[in-house]
Amino acid sequence: MPRRPVNIHPAYHAHVYFDAATVSKARTLVAEAGRLFDVQVGRVHEKEVGPHPRWSCQLAFGATEFDKVIPWLDAHRDGLDVFVHGDTGDDLADHTDHAYWLGNEWPLKLEMFRR
What we know:
With 115 residues, the protein is an alpha+beta fold. It contains three helices and five strands.
């Protein structure tokens, strides 16, 4: 069972996962998040990037936005999976110990963070 996000870090990333069939839905979701909240909307990657095993788009935000952004994302993700993690500067810990999910959990490609 995926761990639900908790607000215990100063900053966060939420990665909305999608594929060719759901890219339009993801674009609409992240654009609306950018309009409604104080979040930085990243590029919509129509390929796997970094440790992410799906196409994705990153939303970056602080702890002050967390309690607004996370419930909204969960209510409006419309079947999309969202990987949420703390942004502490420790990439491996952020993508493992500080990792949470809305929807299904996907195995990340963590080799890039291993020392």
